[in-house]
Amino acid sequence: MSDKRVSMREAISTYVRSGQTLALEGFTASIPFSAAHEIIRQGHTGLTLARMTPDLVYDQMVAAGLARKLVFSYLGNPGVGPLHAIRRSIEQGKPAPLELEEYSHYGMVGRYMAGAYRLPFFPLRSYTGTDLPAVNPLIRNVQSPYGGGAVAVVPPLNPDVAIVQAQRADAEGNTQMWGLLGAQKEVAFAAERVIVVVEEIVAEAVIRADPNRTIIPGLIVDAVVHEPFGSHPSYVQGYYDRDNAFYLEWDEISRDEGRTAEWLREWVLEVPDRAAYLRKLGPERLERLRPGPAPSPPVEYGDYRA
Amino acid sequence: MSDKRVSMREAISTYVRSGQTLALEGFTASIPFSAAHEIIRQGHTGLTLARMTPDLVYDQMVAAGLARKLVFSYLGNPGVGPLHAIRRSIEQGKPAPLELEEYSHYGMVGRYMAGAYRLPFFPLRSYTGTDLPAVNPLIRNVQSPYGGGAVAVVPPLNPDVAIVQAQRADAEGNTQMWGLLGAQKEVAFAAERVIVVVEEIVAEAVIRADPNRTIIPGLIVDAVVHEPFGSHPSYVQGYYDRDNAFYLEWDEISRDEGRTAEWLREWVLEVPDRAAYLRKLGPERLERLRPGPAPSPPVEYGDYRA
Amino acid sequence: MSNTTYSPTEMMIVAAARALRGAGTVFVGVGLPNVACNLALRTVAPDLQLIYESGVYGARPARQPLSIGDPALVSGALSVVSMPDLFGLYLQGGLIDLALLGGAQVDRFGNLNTTVIGDYSTPRVRLPGSGGACEIAINARRLVYIMRLSRRSFVPALDFRTSPGHLTGGGARTASGMPGEGPFAVVTDLAVFDFNNPQHEMQLSALHGGVTLGQVRQEVGWELRVSSTLAETPPPADEELNLLRNELDPDSHYS
Amino acid sequence: MSNTTYSPTEMMIVAAARALRGAGTVFVGVGLPNVACNLALRTVAPDLQLIYESGVYGARPARQPLSIGDPALVSGALSVVSMPDLFGLYLQGGLIDLALLGGAQVDRFGNLNTTVIGDYSTPRVRLPGSGGACEIAINARRLVYIMRLSRRSFVPALDFRTSPGHLTGGGARTASGMPGEGPFAVVTDLAVFDFNNPQHEMQLSALHGGVTLGQVRQEVGWELRVSSTLAETPPPADEELNLLRNELDPDSHYS
């Protein structure tokens, strides 16, 4: 079993290149902000960014001028409002224009599934009577060979690099996650390279004690980054809460191009790594995000011998 | 929350009818033998039986003369040999001829997935250059609208009733399972009616303490049957081992039509229910199948308030 | 009945909650629909099963969830599922009775725009886009819309059709083969609309207290059809307002 | 080298295990392949990752598994996955380097029959059918066959083609667009065959100790091609036999 643990700096510099297609997934939870910030620091540009919900994580990367194109299904600051930086880029071409490839949620899921299943397309019941296919020629139809008309299809999406946040993994990258699963498994299997960011590194024995909990096998993982609070201001189930205050702050900051650049300089560019970012946030703010205990009860796998 | 707990007799008599398509799934594990035996006792006939691996469970139902048709992908007594009763039916039409609708494993999985996803077909990379499509006209091709040629497709399979065995469920049918999952979730979502057979009924609070473990939601469950050792001679992970001795015994018994009928009379028809079957097996045999303890460690969900 | 005053938004949320009467499962999105669903659960639809777009079934949150991604929805839920399972098995699989949707623009046949104001490639205002709305509108058995009434939103022609309602009206939706029946109610801060006519054209079915037909016509961008059974919306009951103000939206985030 | 005697079946299992040298991941089915894979893991391929057809990755069984469905494979494994994930993400997804297959009949181009002897609708002998073999043969990067050599099995024409090998030979398989490369070795109890010629035709590459070319021709139902580099299979080493007899197949269930 090979040890794939590396620092975030090393993981990003080893696998991320300018011009690649990246997918930093995590549906409303476990969003890998720590990886996004390191990508911004390393200044990889001309990126195609795929994500169901670009959220603040891509708003920041777009504001940093790294993105050439967005592949997505919902542009918003959940429960707060629009993503101002991305809107500026789309509406005013600032800091740079942004190419859009737009789907619905299930369309994005279907693209990851086709990529993961190595299928030429994935079928879904969507897009009927809408304008989405007109602005995205990759959304097509297939006639059912069993009659009953056509069904919509989307093509595979195989990101160069997928980055997913999880609760825990062993050194080889056998990754266990719980809570909201989004399309984490599908994007990992679809990607050429997989970087897993975890709150905890555990012994292989911990993974083996509950194999049904392993969502991503080490088999497809290239790098394992141990990064506590790696998802802040997003959250990791059981480890910390969503920092809703920051999602509101960002709504203010991101309205202004200058303040946005200033925030990126202060909180990303001039911060060496996530540890420093956490020190800057301060222990009080992080402690307030800690939930009370709610452990799952054990299940019996059975020790089968002779 | 409604209480869906009923006896096996009531579950089968309420939902199973002659002429239906049934799927008693469970891939090499958690095979619902207790349900099959009750169906034989109630004498529902003209059944279409769908299962990836017919295994002994369908060999017994076919021997009992209940089946009109088999939808399957692998006919065998795993690690032992052929299924003699089914072979007799196919090769000699005894006790009755059997119509076959044959797929590969992934083809069967695809049929359940199309059924569960309410899709007109499910695409898969299989059947190229084989004779299977020639003997099963439901296996077809679809041209990819993105180029790259054709891909095989199979149509949806929506059983009238799906019966699945699991470790535990609450009274409403929120069902948790671990170990080998087969296509249990897919067949349950694909079916019109779902009967869940469990080793343990647990409080709703136990289910809620580990929601990621819930594979089948009560939302789609019609009946919950509490039937300890309900899968014997198959097994349920963590609860008991596979009774390999019986799989060998059956190879002997089933070679002879008379002995097979005799066994069905003694162990199924003249046994009122699973409890009596277990008494007949004897506690020693069952105790020998109990594994040692190997509990999973808890995971933290977090108690989120205020 | 009640003598307390209430805001138009409170009336809208209460009316939307009432539209959920009898529903078995509802697909819950972020914001106002979330509040309306939780109000319905506490009033007209005690057996309502909430299925959150984030993949949570049978949630029992220890606090009022701030968003569909709130971790409080996961802890103590009956089941948590992946996006492929949520959209494939639950929504497309036909398990959703009802969904609440809203949009920046709606037309007379209940088609929605949540994508863009102006031209798609050179937008005046870029909106969030579909999210799951497109497949929800197609696959959920029935739809209720909740949005503020204004001439800017109730337009004769959409700038972009993100989610299908009754398409061009009449039998158009049925002919398209969509599994779901489409929208049956549009709940706003001033009035409620239905589609109970052969054309499936949006028509005024109820005015909220103190609102005139003229006011409503003023805010609708086409020649408005009025139901022959036009009624007045019963005002929020004390119970409804108390739940809304003290439990479901204490910070008046929505109302 | 070793002076102990060994059975033809033991030689077959040992030779099959050796064919796994260098493989990263192997798809494990029931029976002989299971024993061969576990022998390879203990000898020529210590880093071999076994992926069981039942949905188990990284198994570490406390006892020698009797079947691919043995619960001992689950307890202590790295991951357990559903059938859709096993066949969709692992196999079709391209994660399987190698798979071992067998059959009742094989033809000169390595196509397999595990379905029926005689006519499909009126079979003389009904066999198990495909199971996963059909998609394994199509999607696994490379295939090794393990089966006893006999004229009944090595036939000029299959009664039924269940799993594709090199189809009609030459570039046929490549032209068909199958992701996998097809079979590269056929390991039997008397000899080993490869397909190292432009026609991808099965050819004798090694004779097991004491076996003559004549014996082999006797058991092959077509004009057998012989490799220009025909060799003799090195006999089982003591280590290989000891593992096989004392640990992997103590009850001589297979050998």
Explain what the structure shows.
The complex is a heterotetramer, with two copies of chain A (306 residues) and two copies of chain C (255 residues). With 306 residues, chain A is an alpha/beta fold. In chain A, 33% of the residues lie in helices and 19% in strands. In chain A, the strands form two sheets. In chain A, strands 1, 2, 3, 4, 8, 9, 10, 11 and 12 form a nine-stranded mixed sheet that branches. In chain A, strands 5-7-6 form a three-stranded antiparallel sheet, with helices on one face. By secondary structure, chain C is an alpha/beta fold. Helix content of chain C is 25%, strand content 21%. Chain C has helices at 8-18, 32-42, 71-74, 83-91, 133-139, 172-176, 213-219, 238-248; strands at residues 25-28, 49-52, 56-57, 79-80, 98-101, 105-106, 112-113, 116-118, 123-126, 142-146, 183-187, 191-194, 203-207, 225-232. In chain C, helix 1 crosses helix 2. The two termini of chain C are 20 Å apart. Chains in contact: A-B, A-C, A-D, B-C, B-D. At the A-C interface, helix 4, helix 5 and helix 7 of A face helix 4, strand 9, helix 5 and helix 6 of C.
